[in-house]
Amino acid sequence: MSNIIVVLVDPQTPGNVGFVARTLANFGASRLRIVGADLRYNDDAQRFAMHAVDILESAEVFPTLEDSIRDVHASWAATARIGGDHSVTRALLPLTMLPNPDTLDGQVALVFGRETNGLTNDEVSLCDLAFTIPVSPRYPSINLSHAVSIVLYDLFTRFGTDSSGAVSPSKAATRKERDQACIFFDEVVDVLGLPEHRIPIAKRVFRNLLGRAYMTGREITTLTGTVRVIRDRLLGVNDENQSTP
Question: If you ran DSSP here, which 8-state letter would residue 169 be given?
Fold first, then answer.
């Protein structure tokens, strides 16, 4: 759990921030980031953190979500808003389908929204994938600290206590490598002649797929090379030194 960062976006209840710090300690995580007001030294936050005050006080504070996840390998947004089969911006994974964070080469941010209305669509779109905690439809809203506890518990019991090592021996694709694949794919989409309103949807679907998938460095290199060749063929680029991946 050492590569997990919990990001709280505009938390509105200082006590919840303290409880979250305590939850991190319970499940072997230690890195907390807060977007918005600095609540680290609020009396309620300090009191509810109990013996995890060190995690609370070492939390990093950022002005925006984008700033808080700029340096991570992957960011996973928790949301209760399910868009359905026809929504490409809210193609959600159930919590139990999240991959093993230890198979990724870098930090993984778990992003949680406000107690009242969660994350905005734009904030979810900044993240690599969105996931949801299965709950009763009669009352789908979960307290912020409870949601963090459930997610960390699930990851800890599935991956954190397994000493047998389910970690892939292959190097995971980096964010920079995935971004390069998206750049080439965007250029392909731009020359296909799709209806204008379909272009951003096609680009978003590709990003969604890469965000949800675990890919090795070799796999992303092969995919990027293939998309680059497609782009060059569509643009009529003739590079005699270019080899097909």
Answer: S
The whole-angstrom separation of Cα 245 and Cα 225 is 6
Contact 128, 24 (CB under 8 A): no
Buried b (16+ CB within 10 A) or exposed e, 175-207: bebbebbbebbbbbbeeeeeeeeeeeebbeebb
Domain ranges of the chain: 4-160, 175-235
Per-residue pLDDT of the chain in tens (245 residues, 90 and over written 9) = 788 999 999 999 999 999 999 999 999 999 999 999 999 999 999 999 999 999 999 999 999 999 999 999 889 999 876 554 444 455 678 898 888 888 877 899 999 999 988 899 889 989 988 999 888 888 878 899 999 999 999 999 988 764 444 444 566 777 788 888 888 899 999 988 889 888 989 888 888 888 777 677 888 888 888 988 998 888 887 654 454 45
| The model's pTM | 0.69
CATH of 4-160, one of 3.40.1280.10, 3.90.180.10, 3.20.20.100, 1.10.3470.10: 3.40.1280.10
User: With the CA atoms of 119, 72, 181 and 220 taken in that order, what torsion angle do they form, in degrees rounded to the nearest 10?
Assistant: -120
Q: What is the dihedral of CA 23, 28, 30, 36, to 10 degrees?
A: -40
Question: Can you tell me the distance from the alpha carbon of 237 to that of 193, in angstroms, rounded to the nearest whole number?
Answer: 18
According to DSSP, residue 34 is labeled E
